[in-house]
């Protein structure tokens, strides 16, 4: 069986109806690919539609205020993607006159564009014969061809890239790459793939050798850091709110939050209240959640509590609730605001 031909045929019959598949405009392809990094299509789709409506062209995105960009991105996670997206839009708009580079090599020079994204744009928008390699591709190729190499090893990436490149049909890279990604997303899934109804069930190495659950091989596990975050909702005598902008590198950079007390370990509620009383010189502290909200990120597990204090004087730095809800917040804080103040 010709793997590439069969895969493209499957794709043309089974592809999902997605808006970025109705264009080869590099702006739209770039936008969708950045949004779908480590993100499911179902989650990313409404964000893509919102961005295209708000910023129809790269010039519109480039001229937007960063807070608006981050607000629209709110809830999609990995916020460095949004900051890089905005920076790249400014570069393409100003330095390249709105024209994206038309080759894989040049696309790699854009901020936030890695090998996978560059290959996707180059092949879909400019039909360059370069293959995409991501988690879906690792899985499909490892299972079908029996590549029993550890994908957490950086050297393995080269092996998969060479294999994928060798499979790209000349002048049909766009369909092949999208077929490979789609097949991994909806057919050859990480868990419980539908092997009985798979076009490759007679020739798949993993299925024949009963190794579907074992491939691809990945031995290195992500080390998870635990953090304990206690957010203090500070309201002044006019019920205005004190917030602060996170400017340090790390999670949630340039997003807003309530004043924070972070501890090295989990403390009981009374201990945290004592810290708040000392920090803000105030007696009355209202607590919202005795048990922390656990917010899981790829490399961190955050244990989050919310407290509220009311000051007896007007705070010149405090803002109204109407102003507050226009700001971009981490989704866990946004959800708290929606649940408790709307």
TrEMBL record:
What reaction is this protein's catalytic activity? Answer: Hydrolyzes free adenine bases from 7,8-dihydro-8-oxoguanine:adenine mismatched double-stranded DNA, leaving an apurinic site
Q: Would you indicate the residue range of the signal peptide?
A: none
Top EC class per UniProt? hydrolase
Q: Which InterPro entries match?
A: A/G_AdeGlyc_MutY (IPR005760), DNA_glycosylase (IPR011257), HhH-GPD_domain (IPR003265), HhH_base_excis_C (IPR023170), HhH_motif (IPR000445), MIG/MutY (IPR044298), MutY_C (IPR029119), NUDIX_hydrolase-like_dom_sf (IPR015797)
Free-text cofactor note: Binds 1 [4Fe-4S] cluster.
A Pfam family that this protein carries is: HHH
| Database matches in Gene3D superfamilies | Helix-hairpin-Helix base-excision DNA repair enzymes (C-terminal), Hypothetical protein, domain 2, Nucleoside Triphosphate Pyrophosphohydrolase
Please state every residue range assigned to the domain named HhH-GPD. Answer: 35-186
Q: Could you say which cofactors this protein requires?
A: [4Fe-4S] cluster
Mind listing the UniProt keywords for this protein, alphabetically? 4Fe-4S, DNA damage, DNA repair, Glycosidase, Hydrolase, Iron, Iron-sulfur, Metal-binding
> So what EC number does this one have?
3.2.2.31
User: By its UniProt entry, which NCBIfam families does this protein fall under?
Assistant: mutY
Summarizing the function annotation, the protein's role is: Adenine glycosylase active on G-A mispairs. MutY also corrects error-prone DNA synthesis past GO lesions which are due to the oxidatively damaged form of guanine: 7,8-dihydro-8-oxoguanine (8-oxo-dGTP).
- Which protein family is named in the record? Belongs to the Nth/MutY family.
Q: Please identify the protein, giving its name as recorded.
A: Adenine DNA glycosylase
Q: What is the organism of origin for this protein?
A: Flavobacterium okayamense
């Amino acid at each position: 069986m010709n793997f590439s031909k069969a895969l493209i045929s499957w794709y043309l019959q089974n592809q999902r109806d997605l808006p970025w598949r109705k264009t080869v405009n590099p702006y739209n392809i770039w936008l969708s690919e950045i949004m779908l990094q480590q993100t499911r299509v179902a989650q990313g789709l409404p964000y893509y539609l919102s961005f295209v409506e708000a910023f129809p062209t790269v010039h519109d995105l480039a001229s937007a205020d960063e807070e608006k960009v981050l607000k629209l991105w709110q809830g999609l996670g990995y916020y460095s993607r949004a900051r890089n997206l905005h920076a790249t839009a400014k570069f393409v708009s100003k330095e390249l006159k709105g024209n994206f580079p038309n080759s894989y090599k040049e696309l790699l020079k854009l901020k936030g564009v890695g090998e996978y994204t560059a290959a996707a744009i180059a092949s879909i928008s400019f039909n360059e014969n370069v293959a995409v390699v991501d988690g879906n591709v690792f899985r499909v190729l490892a299972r079908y061809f029996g590549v029993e190499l550890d994908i957490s090893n950086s050297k393995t990436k080269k092996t998969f890239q060479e294999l994928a490149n060798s499979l790209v049909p000349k002048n049909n890279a766009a369909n092949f790459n999208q077929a490979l990604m789609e097949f991994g997303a909806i057919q050859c899934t990480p868990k419980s793939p539908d092997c009985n109804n798979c076009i490759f069930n007679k020739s798949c190495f993993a299925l024949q050798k009963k190794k579907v659950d074992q491939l691809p091989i990945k031995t290195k596990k992500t080390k998870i850091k635990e953090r304990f975050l206690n957010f203090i909702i500070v309201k002044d005598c006019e019920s205005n709110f004190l917030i602060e902008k996170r400017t340090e590198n790390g999670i949630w950079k340039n997003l807003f939050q309530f004043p924070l007390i972070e501890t090295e370990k989990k403390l009981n509620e009374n201990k945290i209240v004592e810290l708040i009383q000392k920090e803000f010189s105030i007696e009355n502290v209202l607590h919202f959640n005795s048990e922390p909200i656990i917010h899981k990120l790829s490399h961190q597990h955050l244990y989050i509590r919310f407290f509220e204090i009311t000051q007896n004087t007007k705070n010149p730095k405090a803002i109204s609730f109407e102003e507050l809800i226009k700001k971009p917040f981490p989704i866990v804080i946004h959800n708290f605001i929606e649940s408790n103040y709307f």
